Amino acid sequence: METKLGEGKWLHERLAAVADSIVGLDLAEDGVEWAKEQGFEAYAVDAQSPEAVADLGLEPADVVVAGEIIEHLDAPGPFLRAMRVLLKDDGLLVVTTPNAYRLLNFLAPASGSELIHPDHTAWHSPHTLRNLLVRSGWDVEGMAYYQNPAPQLGGLAGPVVRGLRAVFVTFGRALPYWCDGLIAWARPAASG
């Protein structure tokens, strides 16, 4: 986190630069305390519980960003329903998550390994993410894809990794289903 903050890559900080106000929610109390030390409003809460989120008594927001969260959850459906509590009736939910179909996911097993964060519980594809949002009471307005930047490595590995990354980015542009991640935006469904 210190590195992300120093390089201006912490999502919460970047959102704060363009938002009128911003509030962070996290299950990890130490992470919430750290955010507060950085001058941000933040709360420790189980965001998979609509009741716990409602008990915070926060003002309804125009936009809720769930960036790279859904793949860490035990219960993404209750989480998505809890996000409705945070939004105005016409508010926008933005969800980002790694793409189950990213090209590297199919190449890594050839080395006998998985490229996955140790806290992940699921992979989402464009279909499963859309389906999960709809089942959880959202009208999906759109979906897009993103590519991660190449890691900054020195020595011989740096140019090799950057070259491979350029190939993946090219494939991702030509075949977006192979991109690194998904972005979905949705509004609360009228039927609730």
Write structural notes for this entry.
With 192 residues, the chain is an alpha/beta fold. The radius of gyration is 18 Å and the shape is globular. Helix content is 36%, strand content 23%. The mean pLDDT is 88. The protein starts with a helix and ends with a strand. The chain folds into 2 domains: 1-44, no CATH class; 61-188, Vaccinia Virus protein VP39 (Rossmann fold). A 4-stranded mixed sheet has the order 3-4-6-5.
CATH architecture of the largest domain: 3-Layer(aba) Sandwich
* Highest-level CATH class of the largest domain: Alpha Beta
The gyration radius over C-alpha positions equals 18 Å
Tell me the distance between the termini: 36 Å
Helicity level: 25-40%
Calculate the mean pLDDT score and round it. Answer: 88
Class derived from helix and strand content: alpha/beta
Number of helices: 8
State the CATH superfamily name of the largest domain: Vaccinia Virus protein VP39
Q: What is the succession of H and E elements?
A: HHEHEHEHEHHEHE
The parts where pLDDT drops under 50 for at least 5 residues are none
What is the count of distinct domains?
Answer: 2
Shape: globular
Beta fraction: 15-25%
Number of strands: 6
CATH topology of the largest domain: Rossmann fold
Query: What is the topology, as strand order, of the major beta sheet?
Result: 3-4-6-5
Oligomeric nature of the chains: single chain
